[in-house]
Every structure is written in C-alpha cells, then in structure tokens.
Amino acid sequence: MTRQSLWFLLSALVCAVQVGTPDGQAANTAQPAASTEGTAEGTILKHRLALELSPEFHEIIATDDVVVQVNDLESRTLDFSLNGRLKVETIELVTGSQSLMVPFTTSSQAADTSGRPKQMITLQLPPERSPEKHITLKWKYGGVINDPPRESRHLRFVTPSDTAGHIGAEGIYLSGETLWYPDKSGSLPTYRVKVTLPDGWTAVTHGRELARSRQGEGTTAKTVAEWDVTANTEALTLVANQFSVTRREWEAPDGRRVEIATYLFPEDDRLAEEYIEATAKYLKAYGALLGPYPFPKFAVVENFFASGLGMPSFTLLGSGVIKRHYTQPYALGHEIVHSWIGNSVFNRIDRGNWVEGLTTYLANYYWHELNGDPKQAREQRRLMVQGYSVYVTPGRDYPVGHFTQKRDERDNAIGYQKAAMVFHLLREEIGDHAFWDALRRINARYQGRYADWKDIEEGFAAASRRDLRWFFEQWVEREGAPVLSIHDARLEKAREPAAAHRLTVSFKQKEPPYRLHVPVVVHMEKDTWETVRFEIASSVETHTITMPMKPSRVELDPDMQLFRRIERTALPPMLNVYVTDPHRSVLVPEPTTSGPYQEVLDRISAQEANRPEGERTSMIVGGDPSLLPATGSVLVLGGAGSRSRLQPLLSECRAPVDLKERGFSIAGTEYEGATMALLVSCHRRQAPGSVLTVLYGVTPEAVTKVARLLFFYGWHSTVVFQDGSVLAREEWQTVDGSREVRVDGVEAVR
What we know:
With about 750 residues, the protein is an alpha+beta fold. Helices cover about 20% and strands about 35% of the residues.
C-alpha cells in the first residue's frame, strides 16, 4: 500500500492558492510495505477471507483459506505474522475433501512505532503431507481491534490521525499495518473477501464488488458483500461505514469498462459528481502517458478520521478533506497516479524508494506542463529546488537511492522533491519520446511485481538506447547537489560595427563537479533575451557563443530547470529560512497572555518541548524590537500598537514595505482595512543566511485565522491576507545567479 505524507501536498496546496485553488488541510502518510520477494520457506498466493465485523463490540470473526506456495519441500515449519490481539482457534491443512489439524505455536513481538502488537504463528506441518508445492491452510481466528484514531502529536504539519486499526460505531479501518489476516513478508497474493456487517453498512476494499445482499430482518438484519481482488497486492485494506454510494462506468481508451465510484457520508453525497468527473479526467490523462489503468475500479472513499491514503483501486480521504473539494492534481491526481506507480508496480523498500519521487513528478509537477500552465510548473520546480536547499544541509544529506520513507522535512526534500527533479532531468536528457516509452514499458513489465532503482535504470536505458549509468550514478547514488555559479561573463569588443557579438561565459562548480546542461538567459539590447544551454562537466569551465545582439547581463537558470543547491545567503527571504535556522528567536513587542500571537507562541513551545533546551526557540515577550538578537533569524509578532517600532526594522533590511495606520503598502501597492494582515521576510544584513520575519495584523482579528496555519505559508517573501485568506504573495528574487557582462576586462556598472 502506497501512502504519502501531506507535508509536500500541503505545501503545494498553499502555493496553489496563488492561482485560485482554495486552501485546505488533509493528512497523508508514507509507510511502504515490506519488499523481499518471497522467502525460502513459502509465499502466500491467495487469501479466501470470510469476515464478520461487529462495530458495537469492536470485534472481528474470520476464516481464511490461505493458499501457500512452499518453496522448500524439506521444511516442516511455516511462519506467519498476525495482530497480537487476535486469537487463532484452529489451523487446518486442507487436501481435497480431507483436512488435518496443524499444530502451531505463538510468540509475541514488541509493538512497533504505530503501537500495533504483533505475534508470529509457527506451524508444524505433518511429515506425511503430500509433496505438493501448493497447500491450503484454513485459519479460524478472531478478537477485538479497538484503537480509536487519535489526533497526531505533530503540530507543524498536518498528519493523519494515529491508529493501528479500528472497528467501531464511527467506522471500520483495517489496513495492512493492522495485521488483521495471516501474512508472510514479501508475498503478493490475490484475495476473495466475503464480509458481513450490520444492516446499512457498506464495505470497500481493493478490486471489484461481485455481490451485495441483505440477509435477515429487523434488528438482526445483516449486509453481506463479496469482493474479488485479482491484482497481486502487497497489503489489503478494508474499510466500512454507512455510505451513500454513487457509481459510473468509464470507458478506457482500450475499450475496457472501469467503474468510478464514490463512497461518501450522506451529508456529502452532493460532491459525488465532482469527484467522479475529476477521477475520469485523471484516468484519461495518465492512462495515455503510463498505459492502461491496471484496476477494475477507482473509488473515492470518505473516512471517519483525518487521512489521505492511496490504495490499489481506491483512495481514503478524511471527511474534512472531502468537504474541501480535494480534486487538485497534487491531491486526487497524486492518489490516482499511485494506481500505476506504487500500487501496481511495487517498490523494493530495502533497495530505495523511487515511487514517491516519480509520482510527485507526474502529479504535483507534470500536470501543469500537460495543461499549459508554465507559471505553476515553474512554481513547483522552485519549491523542489528551494525545499532541498532549505531543509538539507550538506552535513545531513544522503543519496536519493537511500531514501525509503519520509520521517521529516529532510526526507521529504530528498525522496520527494529532489527525486522528482531527477526524473525531470532524465526526461530532458533522453527526450519526451523515450521517457514516456520507458514508463509504459516499466508499467507493463512490472505490473504486480517489485521494481527497484536498477530496474528503473534498465528500463530508461532500453527505451533511449543509451548507457545511462553515469546519470544514475550522479543523481541517484551520490549524495548532494551541484553548487554552481557564473564566475565571469565577458564580451569581446567588435573590431567592426557589423561584427558578431562573441560572449564568453565562465562557470564554477564546487567539487566534485557534476555533468550538467546549464540553462543561461542572456539579456540583450532592446529588451530582448535568449536562453542558451551550456554543457559543463568540470569545476571550472569556459564557453564562447555568438549572440545576435549585444548582451548586457546573464542569468543562471532563472526558470529553475536545473536541480542544484542554492546557498542560504542566496535564497529568497522567507519564513522557512527562519524555521530551519539553528538559532531562532521569536519576539512579541506587546505583552500577551491570549490571542493569536500567544497561540503561535504556545504552538512553538509545544512542538519544541522534547528538544534540548539549547536547541529551542528563544521567546522574548514585551521586548524592544530595536534590540534584536545579534545572530540568527527572528520572528516578530506585532500589530498596529507596535507599528512605529516595526517599521525601522523593515526599512533596515530594505523590505519595500510601509506599515500604515489602517493598512500597509508593498512596493507601492496599497492594502487597507481592519481585516488585512501581512507576513513579510527580509535578509538580516548583519547576520548572513538569517532572516527577519514579521507577522503584522492591522487588528488582532486580522491574524486570528492566519496564526493557526502560519507555518504553512513559508515559501514566499510576502503573503498578504484578507480575513485569513491569501490575497497576494510574492517571492523576492536574489541577484546571486545574475552577472553583468563586462567588455574588454571592464566590469559593467550595476
């Protein structure tokens, strides 16, 4: 089961407000399944499950006919994992019409980080058994699964509610992590599932529903449904609730009929058509790119706790997410791309996780290219490059190929953002035709199987008919990123008026150098410009080109097409530079014990409670803004009462902001009214690499809604809010990648 954390999704979500998409919150996680392809003793081929679920008593009663391929015929033992709270009554070896009780022992294992207890069931097969390679074991077991979802302990990031599985009146959630059926690591079985529920309840799982019926009358009535899961699956998730169900048939380009469905709570049923139409749009677009959709259905299922999970053939979204129209490409589109990448072609977690980077590239980024939105495409590239530069310090870096799952912002920046840009660079290296051909080949070849980075490399090499070893060694197996600059730009003085303009550009890379195609924008007279690509592979390299007009200035990759590390001093000022500064202070000029500014202080304190005291943010309440700490980044929380003391700070760091009695202006643009608030960051000249960030509200009410989600607005230099909603935002560019062209050894005047 592929699950992705919302941190990156939400950063994209907040960014998308700029182009008119409403803000929203959701939750998502990333916990890939085990990836060893079978074991020496045996592999599960099929489950035939019959379940009765009792929400009132949190109970599951189950039988499971498990078909096992025994790999070692000399072995007499088989080990299975199961939830530690479930009790196995009997296990029978079934041969034709005969069955034989199989002795077994149980051993407990420590609960994992999700809190789920685990037990290992060891079976002792009889020595006189038939030497068939396939055997059927009939399990009877049951027990209580009652872990009510709890709000995540994480404060800065919206994460899913914590649960290891739950059967209750509010809903049922059983995932692979619940260990609710016997399992063997590395198995990729198929399933037939018959589930009995109280009357009015509906179950959803992978595959297609074959039948549903109502049995009995009155208070004893039950709903019985049967599901068929024919696709090989890493882990089965089953959910149930009192849903309103809407179904449509969609005809795929290959003529197959695919069911698109919604399972929503009755009060949200009005949203069914919106989700069905969006699903059809993504299935059509990505099917053309990646090959036939691999499942018989795709369903949008509403969850009773905060979540945003992608499983084979359905996505499970928290009720709050559903109500927020979660149909954007980085949201619903991302979950649908996982239908091909991660939920059909599986990831070998012990050999690195390529799935999240490729899915992020296709959904969060490429959708904007596909639909002709270069502004938003560039914004996604910016987030990827700057996210890495902000959150991955050189001493805490590791190769993309070592990424397995996301635990923090550093993992997100490497495994999602850098990895997505690696696929962007690969597409540019081999061209669109070979890139999309390779993805279709990989999906066809590895459907229902595991693939790792080596398999991905072989697929792209075969499609492009090129040796790509250097590319994967450089971008996947090596940690770090290029640190690149234009060292010099020189124009040879023409001897004749009509002579061509010969421009010489010198580049510098930090060791060890990368092999790169570097885009440079050359600005010329008459407000013209041209993008030129230079191939470089050395620490110092010089190239000479001929330009049609006289060049005046060169810019290094202003469109963010190249993945590289941007030094902190060259990053645009923004809240996330404050967040990642090892020395942070927060200052509130006016004493406060309640209100939005106190809420920000409380959130920071709660989040940092477990940190060593020397690593915590310094809190200065009632302090003088003119006496800021000499080092580190500072967050100042102030309103109209401290306006006269905040303005000198912004003027000193050259922020084009003028705080006024009834509003403020930014570079001459006026914003006025009691509901206006501003988040603005600027570089601290006396502390290179650090920023001053000010959250300013014309009234306390203007920042009440902003304070709750303050740290989700960390990627822009200015964000303007009106009544808590984003009205405008801007990134202040730096001049680090720009150099004036000099003539005859004389530097041009800046």
